[in-house]
Amino acid sequence: MIHTVIFDRDGVLSEQIPQPPEYGTGVGGAWRLEDFRIIPAAIDAVWYTHGRGLDMFVATNQPYIAKGIMTSDVMYQMNAHLFEVLGISSENVYFCPHSKENNCACRKPKPGLLLAAAKEHGFSLDEAVMIGDRPSDILAGQNAGCAMTILIGNNDQKTRDALDAVGAKPKYICSDVSCAVRLF
Ligand SMILES: [Mg+2]
Ligand SMILES: [Zn+2]
Predict the structure, then answer these.
(1) pLDDT tens digit string along 116-160?
(2) 73 is annotated as an active-site residue
(3) What CATH code is carried by the domain that includes residue 129?
(4) Would you state the pLDDT for residue 146?
(5) Ligand 1 mean position to 133 CA, how many Å?
(6) Phi, psi of 25 (to 5 degrees)
(7) Cα 93 to ligand 2 centre (Å)
(8) Which ligand sits closest to the CA of 151?
(9) Which domain holds residue 158?
């Protein structure tokens, strides 16, 4: 029985944009408040999940904080926006402010954020689903002992190869979070 849903933030609940050039050439979360936008499918997903009486959490890596690209104050303002639009309390948003080089215990694929959420809010990870858009989200869910993981993305060979390369085994791959929350 699933009681808790843990969402990654960027690429699942909020839109991704090109990374700042000083950080990389891929896509990632916003680092300015004016660029922070909720994905419309997230509104449906949260409405549906709330209606089922499940608890919702967010677990997000925010390395721009460690890199000095974004202040934690901006992050807290984004949390306030998440609460306004999606109704997810800031108390339920767990973020890793470190970068890969910090070798912390909380940066996904490590399970630290999920373990902290479960401990502080008293829920069981074996009754929780982790939903994310990167292999590291799936691994974090697996490492934390989640009942199920779901990847948001294209179910193509490239995606499956990237998952296989790190041993990430989502139960489902689907196109958006609105679809994902209807799979359990
Ligand atoms: Mg993401
Ligand atoms: Zn961390």
Answers:
(1) 999 999 999 999 999 999 999 999 999 999 999 999 999 999 999
(2) no
(3) 3.40.50.1000
(4) 98
(5) 5
(6) -115, 5
(7) 14
(8) 1
(9) 4-180
